[in-house]
User: Which sequence fits this backbone?
């Protein structure tokens, strides 16, 4: 067999893994790989403007397609710039393969130019990582990286390739020849007895609730279909986490809203009073549970998850089922059919009456205005005017992110991309680029805050280069709104450093990057602006100047339980927020 | 409630003997705030490049279950057994001790050495180096007996442990 260079091996293995796009940025330690990219036509390279954005773009690409997102960067600063993105992907379970260049093997450890111990640095923020010191192992490592990042609980895998390895020659024997990770076989098929146990609990419950998370999105569209079937068959209510939105259609009447810190009154109260909590691919995050000792105190808890380290991590559960959600949910559906079980609506009638009472509080209501645009109103109009187009939505981090979760509809999985676990400001714009690359004809909107958008604003240049028609919808409140909200609530309204001075003129900024800019100041002009934004073929920044004083409700203050929600600005915290609560993030 | 009691656990872990594997294991403990009371590691299969790590840790049941689940998620980890959960097991440590033994006290010293089946590795002038292997409590008891003598330095291996019976660790 003919020998090829390590750099060529990289490209060959990526082609074998059906990679269509790489998000990257060149530099000295990856020049041989960039040379191979230049010589071929099968893989498209998207040149970002900052390596962090390469990872977020790959995340958007991966989350919206179910495929692996691929990143290529140079050693040293190129590699360290990916750390935030990798940590983000780790927290939100997104499959990424990140290839980094490294100084030549004989110089490793010498503090060589642009050397960074990226394998050491990223050990805790990757699912696994490799330093390749032998060119004959390179192909095996890259194929393993793809296997590991997408199977089991997905996550980022980093492959560090010294420059000499990229130039050494070896034979490439094709994907099938490399199976060095035979033992990485996460359990996907659930145990039969567990399925029986769940079905039994479901038939006995009179106050059940489905608590659905991002795991359903990870498991794929097939899992969403099984979930839909199950929820319809049982008539049980369903709430979803921030990461789960869209796994079950949010316009369906059985959906009772997102749960957690900024979840609905009805979702959180249902969690609190339920007698059977069916956790489907969610991880009992602290944004969900509030004070753990007071979390859903009376329920039997069933946890379905592919990762056993998610079980009993923060909340003790009664039944744990390990497996892939598609397999688990279809097994439950099959068992129900085999046993000809009919779920009686009567049994949960009282439960629904109670839930509807909670619902009638209309907890997301806000006081609209004719003079100033309320951020909630802007999102309601955005939803109304784009819903039919089934847009892909990404967000930055802050109040606007929570309002987007509350006020937009998500009726299909994989259409909602947000940084949940790490809460990375600057995620939304590059993620939207990645989504748009994967879905060139679809409407992609980044719902942004004026502070967050500045964190990766350089990507406007990437958007210009590839003519990506991304729409950036800024809810401009002149504040780091989420920070301000906490300062009002917990720090005596001392707004330390949360005002956004010296903002750019977003219209001119857009124009300078060849995009269109629109500014809206009045509620009456909103619809026209949104319609214009959608009708423009290219990228648009729509700067929506909103009420700076609006806060995001409902809210469960940190350290409180689900039945201690604040519903609006006039609700006061019951007594002082405990010291215990003050120290929580 | 047993959920709140701290108990000691001996974890035996079969891992790929590759660079960085120990950093992954140890980093998991420090990063997540678990404690390591003792650690020992060495290659046990040179054909398959496998090492066996023994870690003594402690925590409530929930914490220890979490430690085990997190360790099993590490890609180079092939198998993990919690030796303390099995019916019976052997756990041994090795200790080397250097002493300064004056001639007057030498008699009492030889007594201790003899009764505890300790090996003398080096004996010249007043300097003696001895080697002992045993369970942590046997080692503690030896150190107690040596209190009257002047210990100059000592070094101990971590615990190595093996279950009795048919529960084998997988390669
Ligand atoms: C400002 C801010 C406010 C927030 N407020 C809220 C809030 O009010 N409410 C809220 O819900 N969140 C909120 N979040 C997000 C929160 O921090 C968490 O990211 C989120 O709750 C986690 O979602 P999840 O439980 O669905 O888990 P994910 O992080 O999506 O984890 C998925 C789980 O599914 C499992 N899994 C993965 N793949 C599979 C598979 N194939 N089969 C089976 N299981 C699988 C994984 O092992 C994991 O346990 C907020 C975030 C920010 C930044
Ligand atoms: C990289 C990063 N730094 C700091 C924070 C802390 N933080 C969370 S929300 C927020 C303010 C976001 O402001 P903006 O983007 O304007 O959104 P708003 O809350 O006003 O809607 C900050 C600073 C963060 N999440 N990410
Ligand atoms: Mg703001």
Assistant:
């Amino acid at each position: 067999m003919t020998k090829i260079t390590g750099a060529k091996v990289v490209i060959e293995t990526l082609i074998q893994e059906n990679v269509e796009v790489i998000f990257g940025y060149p530099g000295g330690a990856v020049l041989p790989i960039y040379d191979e990219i230049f010589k071929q036509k099968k893989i498209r390279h998207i040149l970002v403007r900052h390596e962090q954005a390469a990872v977020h773009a790959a995340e958007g690409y991966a989350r919206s397609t179910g495929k692996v997102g691929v990143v290529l960067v140079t050693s040293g600063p190129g590699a360290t710039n990916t750390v935030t993105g990798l940590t983000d992907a780790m927290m939100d379970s997104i499959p990424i393969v990140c290839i980094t260049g490294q100084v030549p093997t004989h110089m490793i450890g010498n503090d060589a130019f642009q050397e960074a111990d990226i394998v050491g640095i990223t050990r805790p923020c990757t699912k696994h990582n490799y330093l390749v010191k032998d060119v004959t192992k390179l192909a095996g490592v890259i194929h393993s990286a793809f296997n590991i990042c997408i199977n089991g609980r997905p996550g980022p895998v980093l492959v560090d390739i010294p420059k000499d390895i990229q130039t050494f020659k070896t034979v490439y024997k094709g994907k099938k020849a490399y199976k060095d990770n035979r033992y990485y076989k996460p359990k996907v098929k659930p145990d039969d007895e567990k399925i029986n146990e769940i079905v039994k609990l479901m038939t006995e419950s009179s106050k059940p609730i489905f608590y659905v998370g991002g795991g359903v999105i990870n498991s794929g569209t097939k899992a969403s279909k099984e979930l839909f079937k199950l929820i319809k068959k049982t008539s049980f209510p369903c709430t979803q986490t921030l990461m789960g939105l869209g796994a079950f259609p949010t316009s369906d009447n059985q959906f009772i809203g997102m749960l957690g810190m900024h979840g609905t009154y009805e979702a959180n109260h249902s969690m609190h009073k339920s007698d059977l909590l069916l956790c489907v691919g969610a991880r009992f995050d602290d944004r969900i549970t509030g004070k753990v000792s007071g979390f859903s105190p009376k329920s039997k808890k069933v946890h379905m998850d592919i990762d056993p380290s998610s079980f009993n991590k923060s909340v003790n559960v009664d039944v744990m089922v390990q497996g892939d959600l598609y397999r688990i949910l279809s097994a439950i559906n099959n068992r129900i059919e085999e046993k000809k079980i009919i779920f009686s609506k009567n049994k949960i009638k009282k439960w629904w009456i109670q839930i509807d009472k909670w619902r009638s509080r209309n907890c997301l209501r806000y006081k609209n205005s004719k003079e100033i645009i309320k951020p909630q109103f802007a999102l309601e109009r955005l939803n109304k005017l784009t819903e039919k187009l089934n847009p892909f939505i990404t967000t930055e981090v802050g109040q606007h992110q929570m309002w987007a979760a509350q006020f937009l509809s998500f009726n299909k999985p994989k259409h909602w991309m947000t940084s949940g676990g790490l809460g990375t400001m600057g995620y939304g714009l590059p993620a939207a680029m990645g989504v748009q690359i994967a879905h060139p004809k679809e409407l992609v909107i980044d719902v942004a805050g004026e502070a967050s958008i500045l964190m990766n604003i350089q990507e406007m240049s990437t958007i210009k280069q590839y003519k990506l028609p991304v729409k950036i919808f800024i809810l401009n409140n002149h504040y780091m709104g989420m920070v301000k909200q906490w300062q009002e609530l917990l720090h005596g309204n001392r707004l330390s450093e949360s005002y956004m001075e010296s903002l750019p003129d977003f219209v001119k900024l857009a124009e300078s990057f060849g995009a269109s800019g629109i500014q809206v100041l009045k509620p009456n002009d909103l619809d026209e602006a949104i319609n214009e934004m959608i009708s423009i073929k290219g990228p648009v920044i729509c700067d929506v100047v909103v009420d700076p004083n609006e806060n995001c409700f409902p809210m469960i203050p940190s350290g409180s339980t689900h039945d201690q929600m604040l519903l609006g600005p006039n609700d006061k915290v019951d007594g002082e927020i405990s010291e215990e609560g003050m120290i929580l993030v | 409630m047993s959920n709140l009691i701290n108990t000691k656990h001996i974890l035996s872990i079969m891992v790929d003997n590759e660079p960085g594997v120990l950093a992954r294991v140890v980093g998991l403990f420090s990063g997540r705030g678990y404690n390591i009371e003792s650690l020992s590691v060495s290659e046990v299969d040179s054909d398959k490049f496998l090492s066996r790590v023994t870690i003594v840790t402690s925590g409530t049941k929930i914490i220890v279950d979490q430690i085990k689940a997190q360790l099993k998620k590490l890609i180079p980890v092939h198998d993990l057994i919690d030796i303390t959960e099995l019916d019976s097991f052997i756990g041994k440590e090795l200790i080397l001790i250097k002493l300064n033994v004056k001639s007057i006290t030498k008699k009492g010293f030889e007594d201790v050495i003899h009764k505890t089946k300790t090996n003398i590795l080096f004996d010249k002038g007043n300097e003696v180096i001895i080697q002992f292997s045993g369970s942590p409590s046997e080692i503690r008891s030896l150190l107690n007996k040596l209190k009257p003598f002047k210990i100059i330095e000592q070094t101990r291996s971590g615990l190595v442990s093996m279950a009795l019976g048919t529960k084998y660790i997988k390669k």
About this structure: Chain A touches chain B at residues 119-120, 123-124, 127-128, 131, 148, 181, 183-184, 307-309, 311-313, 316 (CB under 8 Å).
